[in-house]
User: What shape does this take?
Amino acid sequence: MTDHSNMKLGRVRAPQDPRLAPLRDYLAAPLASPASADWFSRINAWPMLANDEVGDCACAAVGHVIQQWTSYTDAHPVVMDDAQVLAAYSAVSGYVPGDPATDRGALCGDVLRYWATTGMPTPDGGPDTLTGAASVDPRDLDAVRRAVATFGNLYAGVALPLSAQNEDVWASISDAPGSWGGHCVPLVGYNEIGPICVTWGALKQMTWEWWATYAEEAYALLSPDWLRATGADPAGVDWARLEAAMRVLALSLSVT
Assistant: This one.
C-alpha cells in the first residue's frame, strides 16, 4: 500500500472559478465521449517537480500537462524541471525558496492566468503559453469524459480526504472532503473504473464515485501544444471565442 502522508498538497481550496465560462458555452456541437481515453501511455516517467517538498501542485500539474501534450505532438517532449516549476510557483503565490512560512499554495485560477499571460518557463528558454480555458462541472461525468477525450486532459482541483494518504486507488468516500487538504492534478485519461490523474510523479487511478465526491473544480485547456496533435481545432469548439474570453480574463485577474 502506498503511503502519501508525507507528500505536499498546496492547492488553495476554492469553488469553481466563476470567471471562466462553462465549456458548453463554446460548443457548436456535442463532443464525442468514448468509453475510455488514454493520453498517458506514451510517457515513461513523470517528474515529481518538487511537489514532495513544496506545495506547488497547481504549477506541477501544468508541468505534467505540457509534458503530456508535447509527448503526443513533438519529437522531443517539453519537460519542465523543478527550478522552472518553483519559479512559476513563486511568481504566482509569493513563495520564497527556503522559507516554509511562504509556502501557502496557490489558486488554480491564478496559475491559469499566469500561464496565459507570462507563460511557463521551459528548458529551451521560450515560455509555453496557454491559449484558453473553460470550466467543466466535475459532477457531470459525461462532460468530464468528453473534455478529457477531446482536449487530452482536465486540470482539476480536489479536496483530498485523509483516506487518500494510503490508497493505491482513490476509492474510499468515508472521510470528509478536504480533511487532508486541497490538491491539484491533471486527469490524463479514464476507464470504466474512473479518471486517471498524475500526482507526485506517478499515475493514480480513482473511482467515478470518489471523483464525484471530492472534485471541486475542473477546467478544459486549449493550447497550440495540443493543436499539433490533431492538426486542427478540436471539432465543434469555438476556438476564437474561447481565446478572446481568455484574454479578457487574463487582463481582469491579478496574481498575488
